[in-house]
Specification:
Number of helices: 6
CATH superfamily: NADH Oxidase
Largest sheet: 4 strands, antiparallel
Radius of gyration: 17 Å
Structural class: alpha+beta
Distance between the termini: 34 Å
CATH topology: NADH Oxidase
CATH class: Alpha Beta
Order of helices and strands: HHEHEHEHEH
Oligomer: single chain
Strand content: 5-15%
Shape: globular
CATH architecture: 3-Layer(aba) Sandwich
Helix content: 25-40%
Length: about 170
């Protein structure tokens, strides 16, 4: 098993996929199970993961996010949430929906990476088109989506990440 630091360090957003290969159901279920284990405020789990493989729905999603490379994907995970079901802090009304859905997305993309799959966290979509594409109800919001698939050459490319050093982002008290 890969240690977590190596996993987190080596994961990156992939923008091309092997369109000829579909992720096996068993592998996809392991990724989804990892998402299911994500913590949420007060354990409310105010979410659903939509697995999109239908060509019709994928075409709609490609209109919501029109990047040319996104047309190559054959499976997309969409994270949607229910703000009214999320924990709300009584002191100031803070709703934890985005925090909960962020943790869920992070579990999904890291689990996919651990399975040798590529992902790309996408939030830059048109929410109105997304609402129509997924026939969302009034109480549902789409937070993010990610294609999930295989690298074109079968292996991830090793990339250097540019991150601030710890002494710039950590305060000790």
């Amino acid at each position: 098993m890969t240690d977590f630091l190596s996993l987190a360090t080596s994961r990156y957003s992939q923008r091309n996929y092997d369109a000829s290969r579909v992720v096996e159901k068993e592998t996809l279920l392991r990724v989804l199970e990892s998402g299911r284990m994500a913590p949420s405020a007060s354990n409310r789990q105010p979410w659903k993961i939509v697995v999109v493989q239908s060509e019709v729905v994928l075409n709609h999603l490609q209109k919501a996010y029109a990047a040319p490379w996104f047309r190559e994907v054959n499976t997309v995970l969409v994270v949607k949430g229910y703000p009214e079901q999320a924990w709300i802090r009584s002191v100031d009304g803070y709703n934890a929906i985005e925090t909960d859905l962020t943790i869920l997305m992070d579990h999904l993309v890291l689990a996919a990476h651990a399975e040798g799959l590529s992902t790309c966290w996408i939030a830059a979509f048109d929410p109105h088109i997304m609402q129509q594409a997924l026939a969302l109800k009034d109480d549902e919001v789409v937070f993010a989506m990610t294609p999930i698939g295989y690298f074109p050459d079968g292996k991830p490319v090793v990339r250097q990440k540019s991150r601030k050093p710890l002494d710039e982002i950590v305060e000790w008290m």
